Amino acid sequence: MAKTKKKSDHTGTTVAVNRRARYDYQIEDTLEAGMMLVGTEVKSLRSGKASIQEAYASEENGAFYLINANIPEYGAANRFNHEPKRPRKLLVHKKELTKMIGLCRRDGYTIVPLSLYFNDRGIAKINLGFARGKKSVDKRHTEKERDWKRQQARIIRDRG
Predict the structure, then answer these.
(1) Distance, CA of 85 to CA of 73 (rounded, Å)
(2) Which of these, 12, 40, 137, 154, could form a disulfide with 74 (CB 3.0-4.6 Å)?
(3) Region labeled Disordered — which residues (predicted)?
(4) Which domain holds residue 120?
(5) Which residues sit opposite 47 in a β-bridge?
(6) Would you say residue 29 lies in a domain?
(7) Looking at the domain assignment, is residue 1 inside a domain?
C-alpha cells in the first residue's frame, strides 16, 4: 500500500487518544474524518470526557460508522441527552469511502480510531488508522525496540 500524505498533523485540542491501538495493531495508513454529532455530544466532548479505547469503524449500508465509542451524557442537558455508545456516522469524501470499504473487506484489516480532537475551526475530527493485527511476537519485538531506544537516549544523555 502506498503511503499518502499524513493528515494527522492537527494543532487543535485533543479529546481522546487510543494509545493501545499502536501496540495491538500495525498501522499502515491514516485518514482524518468528520463525525455527525448532536449538540450534547459536542458539549460533552468539549469537557474532555470521551473514550475510544474499544471503538472501531464499520461499514453499514454504504456508509461508515464509528461503533462503540463512549461519549458520556452531558450533565446539564436533562431529558434531551444522547445515547453514550450510539453508532456515529463518519463523514469522508467519496474516494476515501471506497478506499475504506475496499480495505475493510480484505482479510485481516481493521479500521481503528487513533485520536479524537477539535481542529483549528472547532470542528470535531477523528483520526482513523487502517490496521492489521499484530501477533504476540511482533508485540515483544516492539517492546524490545522501545526499551533499546530508551537505553540509547540514557547513554547519550549521560555522556553529554
Answers:
(1) 10
(2) 40
(3) 135-160
(4) 13-134
(5) none
(6) yes
(7) no
Mean pLDDT for 51-59 is 85
C-alpha cell read off for 67? 461503533
Cβ-proximal residues to 138 (8 Å cutoff; 6+ apart), any chain: 26
Per-residue model confidence as pLDDT tens digits over 67-90: 998 888 887 777 778 878 888 899
Number of independent structural domains in the chain: 1
CATH number of the domain bearing residue 23: 2.40.280.10
Cα–Cα distance measured from residue 80 to residue 87, given in angstroms and rounded to the nearest whole number: 18
Q: Please give the radius of gyration of the chain, using alpha carbons only, rounded to the nearest integer.
A: 18
Share of the chain above pLDDT 70, in %: 92
Q: Is residue 139 situated within a structural domain?
A: no
Q: For the segment 97-141, what is each residue's pLDDT rounded down to a tens digit? A: 888 788 777 777 888 899 999 888 888 899 998 888 777 777 788
CB 64 within 8 A of CB 57: yes
- Amino acid 35 reads M
* Amino acid (one-letter) located at 89: K
Predicted TM-score (pTM) of the model is 0.73
The angle at the Cα of 118, spanning 113 to 120, to the nearest 5 degrees, equals 130
Do the domain assignments include residue 152? no
The whole-number pLDDT of residue 11 equals 63
